[in-house]
Design brief:
Structural class: alpha/beta
CATH architecture of the largest domain: 3-Layer(aba) Sandwich
Number of domains: 2
Shape: globular
Low-confidence stretches: none
CATH class of the largest domain: Alpha Beta
């Protein structure tokens, strides 16, 4: 498919259309740059920039804006090991959201001055009037930053939403003082599990990163990598230090990245189709089990949505749907009330079937369910071979 769009990283016009996300409300099409390997989505339809939240397992998933809170504890040890916040004076938070980083920084280092950029007025009430916070309600791309201003820039789960990821990275670099630190985290989209049933290329994400290309681009921009997560981690987490600038056209180090990403996405498409067929088997088994005992679904996210829509799970037979995070943002899903209490029933625990509708937190949930005395525990991942 021909297009007039160019790669955001290397400006090449040689980009290949590789995927049409399922049920995209924005008419998203996914492209791979055949020069550097960057994967980006391009909208072909008009859309609302802030749609209501949705836990759809398809591309029309839209955020309830809780991800930054969910992942924040993962960063605390990295802060302790690599960043001396006591020496920082001025900090920039790109996409400050509900203020998880702002509150942590001010609670622990009350001298710090924070410039916060957040496009959604509705989520900033808890910190917008703090004397140490200067808040701008805007998209990052619409804000002019002064050069050599910040000791530290915090950019977590924001870069993948950018109009231009290269512009956000370049602006962040220029706004830092020499030796300043950029803390960057994004989903590692191209880490495809063998049991994916969710559409990974969701509408709100315009860029889809892997670790290597982001490290490569950062290095050529003028950053030194102080810390890097691993290729197999769910997030790309980078701690980057501003050094000598090398700003110009991005020249990729890995000439095979483009073909590798084209192949990965083709494999993902086939796996997605096959795994959604398997959902019908999972749904049928859960429906049968619900006739013999009380069925608890532990996890109310995208897997639950797909179990109902694609797997045929009969929600009227579900006793409890529990999710210790999502209950804060969603009252119901598919007519099931999302419980905020740990799932206990008046029934004998031996008659309860717990189904873990989670991949990343499956082990943690199983351990908790065991402590509650439940004996029959089935995980979504049990249906897939390693």
């Amino acid at each position: 498919m021909s297009t007039s769009f160019k790669c955001d990283f290397c400006t090449s016009g040689n980009i290949q259309h590789v995927h049409d996300p399922i049920n995209s409300t924005r008419g998203m099409k996914v492209y791979v740059c055949m020069k550097c390997g960057l994967v980006q989505s391009i909208s072909t339809s008009a859309y609302s920039s802030a749609p209501p939240g949705s836990m759809s397992g398809d591309a029309n998933r839209s955020s309830y804006r809780y991800t930054k809170e969910l992942v924040f504890d993962n960063y605390l040890q990295l802060f302790k090991s690599h960043i001396n916040f006591a020496d920082l004076e001025r900090v920039l938070d790109i996409g400050s959201n509900r203020g998880i980083f702002v509150h942590w920084a001010l609670d622990n280092f009350p001298h710090i001055l924070i410039d916060a950029i957040e496009p959604q007025q509705s989520v900033v009430e808890s910190y917008c009037d703090h004397q140490n916070v200067s808040l701008k309600i805007a998209r990052f791309e619409d804000v002019q930053l002064n050069e050599n201003t910040y000791d530290f820039v915090y950019c977590v789960h924001t870069l993948e939403h950018a109009r231009s990821a290269s512009q956000m990275m370049t602006q962040s670099y220029r706004s830092l003082k020499p030796g300043g630190i950029l803390f960057l985290a994004v989903p590692q989209t191209l880490l495809f599990h063998n049991n994916l049933v969710e559409e990974i290329f969701i509408d709100p994400h315009t860029f889809h990163f892997d670790l290597n290309i982001l490290v490569d681009f950062s290095s050529q921009l003028g950053f030194k990598t102080v810390y890097s997560s691993r290729n197999e981690d769910a997030e790309v987490i980078l701690i980057l230090k501003k050094e000598v600038a090398h700003i110009g056209n991005f020249v990729p180090s890995n000439q095979d990245a483009a073909q590798d990403n084209v192949r990965k996405i083709a494999d993902y498409q086939k796996g997605l189709h096959d795994n959604r067929v398997l959902l019908r088997k999972i749904g049928a088994e859960l429906n049968d089990l619900s006739l013999t005992g009380s069925l608890i679904i532990w996890g109310a996210g995208r897997l639950f949505d797909l179990l109902v829509r694609e797997g045929g799970l009969v929600t009227s037979r579900v006793t409890v749907v529990f999710d210790k995070v999502l209950y804060k943002f969603i009252n119901k899903s598919h007519d099931c009330v999302i419980s905020k209490a740990r799932p206990r029933t008046e029934l004998d625990e031996s008659s309860v079937i717990v189904f873990i509708a989670s991949r990343e937190y499956a082990a943690e949930i199983k351990a908790e369910a065991n402590k509650l005395g439940y004996e029959k525990i089935i995980s979504f991942t049990d249906f897939f071979s390693d």
